[in-house]
Amino acid sequence: MYSILFISLMNSDPWGGSEVQWYATANYAIDRGDKVTCMVYEWDAKKEKMELLKKKGATIIYIPNFGRAKRNLYERLSFEWVTRGKQRRFINNFIFSSFDFAVVNQGGFMEVANNPWKNLYKKLPPYIVTFHNYTLNYSFKPAKAKTLTAWMLNAKCLIFAAAKAISELEKQLNNSFKNVLTLASPLSIEKSLNYTPYPSLKNGKYKVIMLAHLDVNRKAQDNLIKAFANDVWKKRNVILEIYGGGEHFNMLQELITKLNLQEIVFLKGNTNNVAEVLNTAHLVLQITHKDAMPISVIEAMSKSRAVVVSNVGDMPVWIKDNETGWVTPDASIQSIEQGLETAWQNKTQWEQMGKNAFDFFNKNFPSSVEEVFYTTLIKK
Q1: Domain carrying residue 161
Q2: What is the pLDDT of residues 7-47, one digit of tens each?
Q3: In angstroms, rounded to a whole number, what is the distance separating the alpha carbons of residues 303 and 353?
Q4: Which of 189, 254, 239, 234 is nearest to 209 (CA)?
Q5: pLDDT per residue as tens digits for the range 113-150
Q6: pLDDT averaged over the chain?
């Protein structure tokens, strides 16, 4: 039995796709009889997930976080002058070395290089650091580059959601790292063992969907909606359903109304039944500005659905033109229009391409992501 500490440094939101991996591994470790402690930022919306681990026997420790949302002047001042001091004292007083292993999860690629975490690696037992996003052409300040490099060189393993991310980071840091594993997040739905039946048309219409947080700076839903504003789409037997919540919900709804797309484009909000949404879809989209390897693409493939993606992260590793879907050069309106048009002209192939997608998924996706993660963590 091991004592394992999981630290999540994702701080922009209470929960996100970057946390699925460590959370699943924490569950796996508990089921194996290990003693699990989870250290996360204190968000009210995060506590539901943490309570599930706590009921299984995990210890949950909340990092002071009041004012993180900075919704008003009081919260902003409280966070900068009170909460940050509490965080520093919290880290200085905690005995990290009492654990056998540690996992440090990042929502992006450089949280560990920021205060108050930048020297924590010196206090940790053997540890893994995860990386879930990256930024092209990012220019590190020398001090941050030095800190992040130290974290990476001293880690037992660096787990990246996309091989593209480590290749870019090596360029930016002018260094190479051997202790690297590329590993996708676990599925959030039950794994399909066979082809998922292709749905019939509902009301004579094809259903195209997108599953992603509503953040136009990363996910480009505004450009997608503008692409559908082309008159040609208003005349076709197709609807677009966009699933997800986020800060840009109202802005996107206003855009739909402004472009008079209320009959073909629908914001559906968050869904608790991703599998059923995919079951009823004919084509899935993930044409985005920034991504590493979104699980929504892999889940669509697991459900025998063709996918249109942008040339970002490792999505082109999974999606091959005219085989499992299509890849657009980027997420500009023009590229989205061209990608959608190509897909539409080949809609009679969507069902077979979905089967190809399942075959690729079945061959390349691990039988248990959390087992791979756990074994990497504890191996001598």
Answers
A1: 3-187+366-378
A2: 999 876 777 778 889 999 999 999 999 999 999 988 877 88
A3: 11
A4: 239
A5: 988 899 999 999 999 999 988 888 888 999 999 999 99
A6: 92
- If we measure between CA atoms, which residue out of 129, 113, 74, 99 comes closest to residue 2? 99
Does one domain contain both 116 and 259? no
Residue 14: per-residue pLDDT: 74
Q: Would you state the pLDDT for residue 90?
A: 82
What is the crossing angle of helices 221-228 and 249-258, to 10°? 10
Co-location of 28 and 55 in the same domain: yes
Note whether 35 and 77 are same-domain residues. Answer: yes
| 176 in the same domain as 263 | no
pLDDT in tens, 283-326: 999 999 999 899 999 999 999 999 999 999 999 999 999 999 99
* Beta-strand relationship, 3-8 and 101-105: parallel
Q: Which residues of 8-38 are buried (b: 16+ CB within 10 A; e: fewer)?
A: bbbbebbbebbbbbbbbbbbbbbeeebbbbb
Euclidean distance between CA atoms 179 and 184, whole angstroms: 17
Mark whether 297 and 355 lie in a shared domain.
yes
Q: Give the number of domains in the chain.
A: 2
CATH of the domain at 74: 3.40.50.2000
Answer whether 292's CB lies under 8 Å from 165's CB: yes
Q: Are 287 and 315 in contact (CB under 8 A)?
A: no
Q: d(Cα 17, Cα 53) in Å, to the nearest integer?
A: 17
